[in-house]
């Protein structure tokens, strides 16, 4: 049986009494530590701790990046978006803080009264990073940015585009959104 999780250099991964330091780890003062970023395997059959390094370091979000994320919460003036990937490198993990904020004034070129009328929890969005330090700040202004996929708040079905909004093909729920021009098409998380 093996336990697997993401670790960073210097993370304690076990004690020398239980595990031998294997590849990607080292032992110091009776404790086993990760020597590299990667996936930790604690092999409970052979009692070896190993870290399989990623092919490269995790991507770090920076200003100007186009990112894909999932709306985690909405408030009248902002939405919290968990950044899942950088659009140009969708299969590469993200390092550091992955929560970004999207302020109502940065959501659209059109007037938006409330973020709750443009985004809902679980919406998959494409956004541009405005700032990444000290926290990720996002914008969805522009035709290529905004909601890529949305789910019905009533029945959970994927919503279909209808004009400038979306409609549920199962229960006929209608909603307004700040849609990306390619809503429902292309790479989606």
Characterization of the model:
- With 189 residues, this protein is mostly beta strands.
- It has 2 domains: 2-53, Beta Barrel (OB fold (Dihydrolipoamide Acetyltransferase, E2P)); 66-176, Beta Barrel (OB fold (Dihydrolipoamide Acetyltransferase, E2P)), CATH 2.40.50.140.
- The protein contains no helices and 16 strands.
- The protein has strands at residues 2-7, 12-15, 20-21, 25-28, 31-34, 38-43, 48-53, 66-75, 78-86, 99-103, 124-131, 136-139, 146-149, 160-162, 165-167, 174-176.
- The protein has a 5-stranded mixed beta barrel. A 4-stranded mixed β-sheet has the order 1-6-7-3, with no helix packed on it.
- A hairpin with a 2-residue loop joins strand 4 (25-28) and strand 5 (31-34).
- The chain is elongated and about 65 Å long.
- It starts with a strand and ends in a 13-residue tail after the last strand.
């Amino acid at each position: 049986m093996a336990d697997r999780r993401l670790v960073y250099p210097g993370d304690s991964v076990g004690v020398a009494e239980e595990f031998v330091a294997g590849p990607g780890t080292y032992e110091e003062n009776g404790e086993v530590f990760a020597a590299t970023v990667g996936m930790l395997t604690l092999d409970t059959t052979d009692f070896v701790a190993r870290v399989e390094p990623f092919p490269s370091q995790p991507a770090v979000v920076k200003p100007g990046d186009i990112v894909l994320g999932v709306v985690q919460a909405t408030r009248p003036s902002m939405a919290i978006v968990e950044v899942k990937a950088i659009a140009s490198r969708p299969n590469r993990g993200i390092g550091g803080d992955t929560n970004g904020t999207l302020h109502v004034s940065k959501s659209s070129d059109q007037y938006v009264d409330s973020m709750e009328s443009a985004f809902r929890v679980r919406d998959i969005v494409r956004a541009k990073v405005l700032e990444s330090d000290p926290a990720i700040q996002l914008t969805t202004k522009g035709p290529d940015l905004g909601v890529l996929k949305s789910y019905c708040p009533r029945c959970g079905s994927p919503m279909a585009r209808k004009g400038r909004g979306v409609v549920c093909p199962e229960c006929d729920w209608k909603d307004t959104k700040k849609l990306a021009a390619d809503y429902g098409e292309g790479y989606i998380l």
